[in-house]
Design goal:
heterodimer; A: alpha/beta; 6-stranded mixed beta sheet; globular; B: 228 residues; mainly alpha; 0% strand
């Protein structure tokens, strides 16, 4: 397997995400129409734009979940079309669902996801600590968690399975003010620790204060935000 | 290979842990299957007839129950988008298939043991020692086949609209060979109508072919089917 982390450290990959002139057609609809974007390690990139502009499709293209018709998309130096499974192992996508099992406890969910990559108990415990899920919360069934706690559990699962590119679609949706603050703190800490994070959101004030860079997706293309931090 | 086995173990352990926690199969599916057996006994209301049809009723009740267990197994995966998350995480689809098949097979074996016990009590089925060996072998082969085809079609239906009604439509015609082979073999094991135990063994060939075919096809096809 490619050691993408070693490659990144050595500078072998210029960018964690390198998308150039990508076209994705869903049915007859061109969801991405020549989108280009680069994202570097440790960045928190905000993708904003109107509904149907292609934000979610761009995230899914980076995860190798939709076929790229034209252009090229590389993630961690891997081609999302020809090395799809390898890309997916390093990418964590959280959309409107968290991918959790409500009958299992927080720790059982995180352990399950960690076990899919052979993570050690120490790695799993560390992932739960980083997300503030150790202690009382760890034994609670996911069914009894708040929306914010579920989101943190899903993020702990990403850490446990060693995802280095986090793709988050409307991560603040459904969270109360405390949950949003907790989530932002967790994402900032993850980016400081080396994770690269792309956030698609309509909540510009909240996500904008979190992001280190902001681009808009409009009609399937990526455009810089005038006056933004990009 | 290592990744596939690791994934299969994790998925099977997770599914069985959820069943131990929720007890849906234990408290709902097994009583349902037992009720089907009892209702058949009321409907037929003839000891001689019941003795003759007992093997078929055991496997009919099993196949009806498979529909519930498969639907439950994939409802767990789709409730919070876990199946898509597994695929998005590049988790080996062969491992997912094998893990879910193993968990399903474990639950089916428990169900079949209860149904065979019920048929012995309700329908006065009689099993000799050699019949017992045939019966256990039949249960193992039929279970592997049913669990494999159930997981394959469960995965196929998981993302579809109207999956609750689609699954029986897809699955019931395909499992007809298991119903026939397992019923004939069980008739021999029970000595129904004076059939000798030795007459049941050839039917295991049909069950073995079905089990191998759907295990292989499922292992290879599950990933592309779930992806699409």
């Amino acid at each position: 397997m490619t050691d993408v982390h070693a490659d990144l450290r050595s500078g072998h990959h210029d960018h964690v995400v390198d998308v150039r002139d990508v076209v994705v057609v869903l049915g007859a609809f061109p969801a991405l129409a020549g989108a280009s974007l680069t994202v570097d390690r440790g960045e928190i990139l905000l993708l904003s734009g109107p509904n149907g502009a292609g934000k979610t499709t761009l995230l899914r293209a980076c995860a190798g979940l939709v076929p790229v018709e034209r252009g090229h998309a590389r993630v961690l130096g891997l081609d999302v079309s020809t090395e799809r499974d390898a890309v997916r192992r390093h990418v964590g996508l959280i959309g409107h669902h968290n991918g959790l099992y409500s009958d299992l406890s927080v720790s059982e969910n995180v352990r399950f996801w960690g076990s899919t990559v052979g993570a050690s108990s120490a790695e799993i415990d560390s992932a739960m600590r980083r997300m503030g899920l150790d202690g009382r919360l760890s034994d609670l069934p996911v069914a009894r968690l708040s929306a914010g706690q579920r989101r943190r559990t899903a993020l702990a699962a990403l850490v446990a399975r060693r995802a280095s590119l986090w793709l988050l679609d409307e991560p603040h949706a459904g969270l109360d003010a405390d949950g949003r603050d907790e989530l932002d703190a967790v994402l900032r800490a993850a980016a400081s620790a080396g994770a690269t994070i792309m956030v698609a959101s309509h909540e510009l004030e909240r996500a904008g204060s979190l992001a280190t860079r902001h681009v808009r997706v409009v009609a399937g293309q990526v455009v810089p935000v005038v006056g933004g931090s990009s | 290979m290592k990744s596939m086995l690791r994934t299969a173990k994790a998925i099977a352990a997770k599914d069985l842990r959820i069943e131990l926690r929720s007890r849906v199969v234990t408290n709902q599916v097994i009583p349902f299957a037992a009720l089907v057996m009892i209702l058949f006994a009321f409907a037929l209301d003839s000891d001689a007839l019941l003795e003759r049809v007992a093997p078929g009723l055991v496997w009919l009740a099993t196949i009806f129950s498979v529909l519930f267990i498969v639907a439950r197994s994939f409802a767990l995966e789709t409730a919070d988008g876990a199946l898509e998350a597994l695929r998005a995480a590049g988790v080996d689809p062969m491992g997912i298939f094998l893990g879910k098949t193993l968990a399903l097979a474990t639950q089916l074996i428990a169900l079949e043991a209860v149904l065979v016990g019920a048929s012995v009590v309700l329908y006065r089925a009689d099993v000799s020692a050699s019949g017992g060996v045939l019966l256990v072998t039949t249960m193992v082969l039929a279970t592997v086949g049913l669990a494999s085809v159930g997981t394959l079609y469960g995965g196929l239906a998981a993302g579809a609209k109207g999956r609750e009604t689609l699954l029986p439509l897809l699955l019931l015609p395909v499992v007809a060979p298991v119903l026939i082979g397992a019923t004939r073999a069980t008739e021999s094991a029970f000595g129904t109508n004076g059939i000798d135990v030795s007459e049941g063994w050839p039917w295991l060939g049909l069950l073995a072919v079905f089990a191998v075919l759907f295990s292989v096809v499922g292992t290879v096809a599950f990933g592309p089917l779930v992806d699409d």
